[in-house]
Amino acid sequence: MKAFQEVSLKILAVGVVVLMSAIVLQVVCSALDINPLAIFQTDTPLLGKAITLNSLLDFQWHILVIVGLMPAGLVWLHGNHVRVDFLYNPMLPRWKARIDLAGNLLFAAPFFCLMLPASIKFFQRAWTSDEASRNGGLNDLWLIKSVLPFGLLLLALAVMVETLRLLRAVR
Prior knowledge:
By secondary structure, the chain is mainly alpha-helical.
């Protein structure tokens, strides 16, 4: 598990570098009025017939979603998510477990019950309509929209694992 976490974090770190590079490339090309950046003879997956400033912008959003959502489960399992620390830290471990358990059951569980089915429908709609971006952006938007249900599922599994651990701690 530890090796998987380290490999995942290294891949996500590369994703951050790719994101920053795409931002710099878009800013430079925009300042120099270079658009499109490349034109292809045939339609290519994801890119279409050209790499444009809009496709670079879409790519940035795609990478941001991946870098932001995919590690959320790991962050949750390590307890590095946002808390009101000045109230939480002085508490006894048993009270911390009770508060975390209540938060998981009252807030996280209903959130996932609503968001997982909605995110699956969101992805399915993009898949069945072969959704593409407008104004020369990226094609195959179902690809990035599939990250949403997958990332939420990973986060839900992490919350479920923590909830089981908290149930044992509270007893």
